[in-house]
Specification:
Layout (H helix, E strand, L loop, with lengths): L2 E8 L4 H12 L4 E7 L4 E6 L6 H10 L3 E4 L66 H23 L1 H28 L6 H14 L3 H33 L5 E6 L2 E6 L8 E4 L9 E5 L2 E4 L1 H4 L5 E3 L4 E2 L4 E2 L4 E5 L7 H11 L6 H32 L3 H14 L3 H20 L2 E3 L2 H8 L1 E7 H5 L5 E7 L4 H12 L5 H9 L8 E7 L3 E6 L2 E6 L1 H6 L5 H12 L3 E7 L2 E9 L6 H10 L3 E5 L4 H11 L2 E3 L4 H12 L3 E6 L5 H6 L2 E5 L4 H5 L3 E3 L6 H35 L5 H20 L10
Parallel strand pairs: 15-22, 15-24, 22-23, 24-25, 25-26
Antiparallel strand pairs: 1-3, 1-4, 2-3, 5-6, 5-7, 7-13, 8-11, 8-13, 9-10, 9-12, 14-26, 16-21, 17-18, 18-19, 19-20, 20-21
Helix pairs in contact: 3-4, 3-6, 4-5, 4-6, 5-6, 5-10, 6-11, 6-24, 9-10, 9-11, 10-23, 10-24, 11-23, 11-24, 12-23, 14-15, 17-19, 23-24
């Protein structure tokens, strides 16, 4: 029997780290469905414990040089020791990742035999942050190799080239030792084509042909690149960590007439907490006492504080700005809105973009091809054309270093991670690279009307009785609708507040058309004018009155008994204030907005005209589904709904977007979610997706362009080993830094 297991894996700085961990564990018996998330630093897999013990998986990851611990437990790090250098000092092993260099003073020391020093990186714990690069193990290795290199140059200049050669040789061997250690570990796990192996071969090969000075310089530049990659990877993770830090660590638990400070993570559903003015709210909950302005910008990005009072929901991490609030906890810490957003962003790495999947496949055969090309460059010219062996060995070794695809492989996930973090800060959530890529290619947006383009709280604005008093029409209609949660039914019930409603029996829904029930012995139906007319209950003057209401942009409900209309109820759901602006932005982006509504054509036309959209009216859920399919033949379609209704259409669309202020459904259904009730966030989300894809194209062009240039110049002998490694690590850092620009991108700016 298999079980799903998760670990924190610390020290991963680039996509090649992900590939090494994945390939090391997926080949083990009983292991399946392996997923390694670079930005979340998470390994998850299905394991049959009868075939492979968990300890063996952890040992394999540690052998590659990474820290690993069960999810939620500190991921261990190894001590920095020279000359037997730990994985932290090496290349893409990153076991002493910059992120984990923050020891807790109270942490006990572990024995040397377990391979660990003090407990390090606790996932998203701010205590893990703060050490400068030069205080990390990789930073110390850079300083050491730099000092050795400088000393070797000094010896070479003062005592002669013979002594200098041995100094450069020592600098190279000390610096390359951890790299070779990781290369051997990867080789034992069936991964011969890693950057560690290429680096080791190039450095040792350079020593054999007498290029000790360049070999030492290459090792130093490689170590510098490692530090820069670690710093860049940490920057990319900062957005997610910042979200976690929004929730306060402690809460004031109300006990009788007093309060007691407790860890926020221990709060349980039903407990009452006190949020003083200026405090961050410690849990998702419902206000039971007090009215205050609540700044939700840390969670939803909404910049204007909203007044919240008893019975209203608040989010953990929001700021209470004015008065004390007593709040009943409705979600435990692991289930609050911010925790769910963090999980969504972490898990989004699994939904890889098609571009990312293509590059991953490309890199699998690219590395062996480069190795084969390097061997050909070394052998063919000397054997076939009498070339100088040292010259062509040197050029072949240079090709090995140029050929590493690190920059290419990291180009997509770095951009995706930055985009997800930037979006999460503004309440724009997308579930992975595949969703981002699909959103970027959207050419049409289909809106569900109620609750999306409108506020979702229609009001009764007209009552037209036929032979009854207005109040009687409302009383009977409310009785029929008493058990319904439809927005129109709730509007009628609100209008009937204070009335004594009779009991309704034998209630039944008429799918997409209305509802019927027995009230005071009368078979009553509330339906659309079209259905009432088909049943013979609405004609002549009654139909004319209904038509006039619809042409004014109102939704009409007909109360009828048998084939007799008893009255008309006109309802209006006002469009959101920013709906017109959102439609304008979409059209400016070359996107066609369309309303899909169950309303009649006249009401739909009136609303569509006021907003400037296309429309499809009188649509049942199955009609919306077929319409989305039809629209998809003309390009990518985004369907925007409230996350509750129209689920088939949301799933059928290229991208289904749920609108809702942090509701469970809005966060966990569809492909994307918008936490603020802003229609303008729809074009903002598409704008962010397009900017992300543009950033990815820039990164891929930069990575491949540099590779192509240096491959040619290396074969021609115009560039050497140190420029080759500079091009490799430099390209990786450049594409990562370019991806980090998305963290500052503001998709709301038109």
């Amino acid at each position: 029997m298999t079980e799903r297991l998760e670990w924190n894996v610390s020290g991963m700085d680039c996509a090649s780290c992900v590939a090494k961990v994945t390939r090391a564990v997926e080949r083990m018996p009983g292991v399946s469905d392996v997923s390694v998330a670079l930005m979340a630093e998470k390994l998850s897999l299905n394991l049959n414990p009868d075939t492979t013990p968990k300890e063996k998986i952890e040992a394999a990851v540690k052998a590659l040089g990474y820290g690993i611990a069960p999810r939620g437990v500190a991921a261990p790090k190894k001590k920095f020791v020279l000359p037997e250098v730990t994985p932290a000092a090496g290349t893409h092993d990153h076991a002493d990742h910059d992120q984990r260099q923050h020891d807790h003073d109270e942490a006990p020391k572990a024995g040397k035999d377990d391979g660990h020093g003090t407990p390090g990186h606790v996932h998203y714990d701010p205590a893990d942050r703060g050490k400068r690069w030069f205080k990390t193990a990789k930073g110390r290795l850079v300083i050491l190799t730099g000092v050795l290199l400088a000393a070797a140059w000094a010896i070479d200049l003062t005592t002669g080239h013979v002594a200098g050669y041995w100094a450069f040789l020592a600098a190279c061997l000390i610096g390359v030792a951890p790299v070779a250690q990781r290369a051997l570990a990867a080789l034992r796990m069936g991964q011969p084509f890693t950057i560690e192996s290429l680096m080791t071969i190039a450095a040792i090969g350079a020593l054999f042909i007498g290029a000790a000075e360049e070999a030492a310089l290459v090792v130093f530049l490689f170590a510098v690149g490692e530090v820069l990659e670690g710093v860049a990877a940490n920057k990319a993770r900062d957005g997610i960590r910042a979200l976690a830090n929004l929730v306060p660590k402690t809460a004031l638990l109300v006990e009788g007439a007093g309060t007691r400070e407790v860890p926020a993570e221990t709060l349980t559903i039903g407990q009452i907490v006190l949020a003083r003015p200026g405090d961050r709210i410690p849990a998702d909950g419902e206000i039971v006492e007090g009215t205050s302005g609540v700044d939700e910008s840390p969670v939803t990005g909404e910049s204007v504080p909203k007044t919240r009072g008893p019975g209203e929901a608040v989010f953990a991490g929001s700021i209470n700005t004015e008065a004390a609030l007593r709040i009943r906890v409705t979600k435990e810490a692991q289930d609050n809105t911010i925790s769910r957003i963090i999980r969504l962003v972490e898990e989004a790495e699994g939904a890889r973009a098609p571009t990312e999947r293509f590059i991953d496949r490309f890199s699998r055969w690219y590395m062996p091809l480069i190795v084969a090309l390097s061997v050909a460059v070394i052998l063919v010219p000397p054997l076939a054309m009498g070339g100088d062996w040292d010259t062509w060995i040197y050029r072949g070794l240079t090709l090995l270093l140029i050929g590493c695809p690190c920059a290419l492989v990291i180009s997509v996930p770095a951009s995706i991670a930055s985009s997800l973090s930037a979006g999460a800060k503004r309440g724009l959530l997308m579930k992975g690279g595949a969703v981002i890529e699909a959103a970027a290619s959207v050419r049409q947006v289909a809106f569900d009307k109620t609750g999306t383009l409108t506020h979702g709280r229609p009001q009764v604005v007209d009552v037209v009785p036929f032979g009854l008093a207005e109040a009687e029409v409302i009383r009977l209609a409310a009785a029929v609708e008493a058990g319904s949660s439809h927005p129109l039914a709730l509007a009628i019930l609100r209008r009937a507040e204070g009335m004594a409603l009779p009991e309704a029996t034998a209630a039944r829904a008429i799918t997409g058309k209305g509802v019927s029930a027995t009230v005071e012995g009368r078979e009553l139906t509330i339906s659309s004018p079209r259905y009432a007319a088909a049943q013979g209950a609405l004609a002549g003057d009654g139909m004319a009155r209904a038509t006039a209401l619809e042409e004014a942009g109102k939704t009409v409900a007909v109360l009828s008994e048998g084939n007799t209309a008893l009255g008309l109820i006109g309802l209006r759901d006002e469009p959101r204030t920013d709906a017109v602006e959102a439609v304008r932005q979409l059209r400016a982006m070359g996107i066609t907005p369309t309303i899909l509504t169950g309303d009649n054509p006249r009401t739909a036309a009136a609303i569509a005209e006021s907003l400037g959209t296309e429309f499809r009216a009188e649509m049942l859920p199955e009609d919306k589904l077929s319409t989305i399919r039809e629209m998809a033949t003309q390009g990518g379609v985004m369907m925007v709904g409230d996350g509750i209704n129209d689920a088939p259409a949301l799933k059928q669309a290229s991208v289904g977007v749920a609108m809702g202020s942090g509701t469970d459904v809005a966060l966990e259904t569809a492909d994307a979610a918008i936490l603020r009730d802003r229609v303008t966030d729809i074009p903002a989300q598409i704008r962010l997706a397009r900017a992300t894809m543009a950033n990815i194209r820039q990164n891929v062009t930069l990575a491949l362009g540099l590779k192509a240039v240096f491959l040619v110049t290396s074969v021609l002998g115009l560039t050497g080993l140190w420029l080759a490694i500079l091009a490799d690590t430099g390209a990786t850092v450049l594409v990562t830094l370019n991806a980090l620009r998305l963290l500052a991108y503001n998709p709301e700016k038109v």
